[in-house]
Amino acid sequence: MCFSASASFTASAILIPLGIYSTHIARKTDQPSYVPLAMVPMFFGIQQLIEGFVWTFVKHDSVEPWTRISSLGFLFFAYCFWMIWIPWSAYAIARVHESSALRHRLKWVAIVATVLGIAFYVPLLFSPPLVQPNLTTGRMLYDISGLHSVIHNFVTTEPVGEMIYWAFIVLPLVVLRDKAVKLFGVLIFVSIFLTWLTYAATFNSVWCFYCAILSIYVIWIVNRPTLKTA
Q1: Contacts of 5 (CB under 8 A, 6+ apart)
Q2: 152 sits in which H/E element
Q3: Is the pTM of this model over 0.85?
Q4: Residue 134 and residue 58 in contact, taking contact as beta carbons nearer than 8 Å
Q5: Measured between alpha carbons, how far is 21 from 14 in angstroms, rounded to an integer?
Q6: CA–CA dist 15, 216 (Å, integer)
Q7: Please, are residues 74 and 54 in contact by the beta-carbon 8 Å criterion?
Q8: Is 183 exposed, middle or buried (0-12, 13-18, 19+ CB in 10 A)?
Q9: Which residues of 133-158 are buried (b: 16+ CB within 10 A; e: fewer)?
Q10: Per-residue confidence band for 230, with pLDDT thresholds at 50, 70 and 90
Q11: 71, 88, 99, 200: most buried by Cβ count inside 10 Å?
Q12: Phi, psi at residue 223, to the nearest 5°?
């Protein structure tokens, strides 16, 4: 998380059980199409757990190789996993609740997002020495400016590239008919905008924290049938 190791570990301790609970609710209430979305809090909890280790290792003067390994783990979620998981989660919902035309479009969006997410992250695996996390004004900065990757440089330095990355995460959610899921996509967009305005230099760390907190909303999304029958 963007504040401290203890904050990251605390968020992880809260989000992982909540994610397991929301997944259980989705299955218990016969909502298999919502299971991927229901797992989002758990995965954010895992990401926060990993960044807690990044904070710990950085504050102990870069305990290698664990600093780079944990940084690569965090960046896997930030650069690759969410770009893939969110579109496929939206597609899973669309398969049951949307028209065939929208299902077809979301399927291709998810496929393209998967290819781009992998292409965005893989260069880091071949250049682990370039992953150098450090503290900047009390926030965690992942400095991989030395990475010579056309895709990475386009997404991280060009406004159009950033918008494409964000679009793959936000748009699949907001085009769905489910208003609660649509609102989740809008909230993610708001978190992107606020982070870009206030913490652009340490965007990855701060934005992932905001989204981790927002993911608690997913529990309400999958719990609505239970609430209605209670």
Answers
A1: 52, 53, 55, 56, 59
A2: helix 150-157
A3: no
A4: yes
A5: 11
A6: 7
A7: yes
A8: middle
A9: beeeeebbebebeeeebeebeebbee
A10: very low
A11: 71
A12: -95, 0
Q: What is residue 129's DSSP assignment? A: G
Q: How many angstroms separate the CA atoms of 6 and 2, rounded?
A: 11
What CA–CA distance (Å, rounded) separates 56 from 62? 9
Task: Characterise 61 by phi-psi region: left (phi > 0), alpha (psi -120 to 50), beta (else).
Answer: left
- Residue 29 tokens, joined: 């209430």
Each residue of 148-173: pLDDT tens digit? 666 666 666 666 767 888 889 999 99
Q: Which residue has the tokens 């710990």?
A: 56
**What is the residue type of 126?**
F
- Whether 14 shows a pLDDT value over 70: the answer reads yes
Measured CA to CA, the distance from residue 61 to residue 69 in angstroms comes to 15
Tokens of residue 190, six digits: 């708001």
Phi-psi region of 63 (alpha: psi -120 to 50; beta: other; left: phi over 0): beta
- State yes or no: pLDDT of 140 exceeds 50: yes
Which residue has tokens 């797992």? 39
Q: How distant, in Å, are the alpha carbons of 102, 143, 183, 224, 226 from that of 213?
A: 29, 24, 15, 19, 22
Nearest CA to 105 out of 123, 119, 90, 116 is that of 90
Q: What's the mean per-residue pLDDT of the chain?
A: 80
Q: What confidence score (pLDDT) does residue 72 get?
A: 86
**How high is the pLDDT of residue 63?**
64
Peptide bond just before 65 cis, omega within 30 deg: yes
